Amino acid sequence: MSAADFRSAQAVAADVREGRTTARAEIEAALARARDDRFNAYTAVFAERALAQAEAIDADLAAGRPVGPLAGAPFAVKNLFDVEGATTIAGSRIRRDAPPAAQDATAVQRLTAAGAVLVGALNMDEFAYGFVTENAHDGPTRNPHDPARIAGGSSGGSAAAVSAGLVPLTLGSDTNGSIRIPASLCGVFGLKPTLGRLSRQGAFPFVESLDHVGPFARSVADLALAYDLMQGPDPLDPLCRRPAEPVAPRLQAAADAPLRVGVLGGWFAQGAFPEVLEALEIVADALQARRGVELPGAELARAAAFCLTPIEAAHLHWPDLKARPLDYDPAVRDRLLAGALAPDAVAEVARRYRPVFRDTVRAVFEDFDVLLAPASVCPAPGIGQATMEMGGQQVSVRKNLGAYTQPISYVGLPVVAAPVNRPGKLPIGVQIIAPAWREDLALAAALRLERAGVVAAHRPPEPAQ
Q1: Which end of the chain is more exposed for a tag (fewer CB within 10 A), N or C?
Q2: Distance, CA of 220 to CA of 205 (rounded, Å)
Q3: What is the rounded distance in angstroms from the CA atom of residue 391 to the CA atom of residue 198?
Q4: pLDDT exceeds cutoff 60 at 465
Q5: CA–CA separation, 413 vs 360, rounded Å?
Q6: pLDDT tier at 462 (50, 70, 90 boundaries)?
Q7: Which element (helix H / strand E) includes 377?
Q8: Tens digits of per-residue pLDDT, 19-60?
Q9: Average pLDDT in the 449-464 region?
Q10: Which residue intervals of 205-263 are DSSP H helices?
Q11: By the 8 A CB rule, do 180 and 192 touch?
Q12: Is pLDDT above 80 for 290?
């Protein structure tokens, strides 16, 4: 079995630039780890493409030509991102006979232009509809900290690949919590940016009004750099119009600046497992957050997102639902059919509440720079576990893991999911939530916590021989 590599993406690139290794050697090692993947994180490996790019980087270095800041660092993407020449399956059976993508997704193009080398595509819930990555066609992704447990979803393969040391950087998508939940359960950092900050062009859609894309990494520095490299307007994504506002160059100074920190209670504490509240308290104490705060209407925002999700998704999938219903994962198909049958008035009401809740959130941020909340209601449940106890009742795992993430993505706020340092325990993360377009505040708070050792990417236990 190939040894895991827990270096940061920037450390790998520095080793390549300074001649301690070559891009080809790094990519060959990453490809070997992908082939030895015990966690079912990968669904495709792009060896020919990856080796060709690595050789081009080595040639540039040998000739004294400039290379990008991530030159030679391997990365992988959720299998809903377009990769030129590969079919974008989005975790489904239906799309396996679709034509290959004509070009890379914008986010993939931008990381590749910075020298990062794409090595593969990663497992996910079918069409991103789920929080567990128990894919009916590709099998479940296993949590590197306990292979009997889920990795979270829908970007479970993306979180597991970073957690297991298969690659230092991955891309995922987040509609209702699909970056933040797997980052939390796998013990890595994840960033859901402001809606419209990063281009979604070439990422297979799920719910247009809620879809985000973002990175996973083992350090805040890697998270911030990847985010910066993907910023900038994209004429192919009508939401992505804002000029780039780089964070990484000023992140160290920002982490030293005073921060007004609030801790969300009310809806964001109801039903949370004790270890989740413990993790939240650890972070709150470290950031000297002395004030609890309510976010009025959070439960309604969650309900609105819950309604919009199947309705908008069903509109996208309706032709295939009619023609090939049995090719869907039953758990996904039934929710899409429910959305197709919902009255138009339900979606209208769900959309109408968004500006109301946005104004509520904006008012709360007049007193705070960042807000803290749990990223998941519990540590990772077991694979195949259908229910869990929440607030004294047995509830669906699939439907409720996102209880604390859905209200935040409903209004498109930027969030860093940060893994709380609790040695010897299953990972659990905290959401660091900032106002719209202020990713810098969430990343600065995460870096302050990382420097203090309060949050850190978890290293999984060594596999039994």
Answers
A1: C
A2: 27
A3: 36
A4: no
A5: 13
A6: confident
A7: none
A8: 999 999 999 999 999 999 999 999 999 999 999 999 999 999
A9: 92
A10: 220-230, 251-256
A11: yes
A12: no
CA distance 130 to 398: 6
Q: How far apart, in whole angstroms, are the C-alpha atoms of residue 133 and residue 126?
A: 8
Residue 153 parent element (H or E): none
CA terminus-to-terminus distance, the chain: 10
For the chain, which domains are there?
9-451 (3.90.1300.10)
| Average pLDDT score over the chain | 97
The strand pairing partners of 455, in sequence order, are 420
Q: Are 384 and 398 in contact (CB under 8 A)?
A: no
Say if pTM beats, i.e. exceeds, 0.85.
yes
Residue type, 278: E
**Is 215:191 a contact under the CB 8 Å cutoff?**
yes
Query: For 296-316, what is the mean pLDDT?
Result: 97
- % of the chain at pLDDT higher than 70: 99
In the residue annotation, 8 being an active-site residue is answered as no
Helix (H, G, I), strand (E, B) or coil at 449: helix
Q: ∠ at Cα 94 (88, 98), nearest 5°?
A: 45
pLDDT at 463 over 80: no
Residue 178 annotated among the catalytic residues of the structure: yes
Catalytically annotated residue among 8, 92, 154, 199: 154
Dihedral in degrees, nearest 10, Cα atoms 442, 445, 446, 452: 180
> 173 with 90: CB under 8 angstroms?
no
CA 124 to chain centre: 11
The answer to whether 402 touches 181, Cβ cutoff 8 Å, is yes
Query: Which candidate in 92, 163, 173, 178 is catalytic?
Result: 178
**Spatial CA neighbour of 261 closest among 241, 281, 240:** 281
Distance CA(431)–CA(108), nearest Å, equals 25
C-alpha 398: how far from its chain's center? 17
Amino acid identity for residue 2 in this structure = S
What confidence category does residue 464 fall into, taking pLDDT thresholds of 50, 70 and 90? low
* 42's tokens: 């990968």
Give the position of tokens 């302050």: 448
Alpha-carbon distance of 72 to 112, in angstroms, equals 10
Mean pLDDT of 315-331: 96
Structure tokens at 106: 């914008």
H-assigned helices in 250-404: 251-256, 274-286, 298-323, 330-341, 344-364, 397-400
Helix axes 47-62, 9-17, angle to 10 degrees: 50
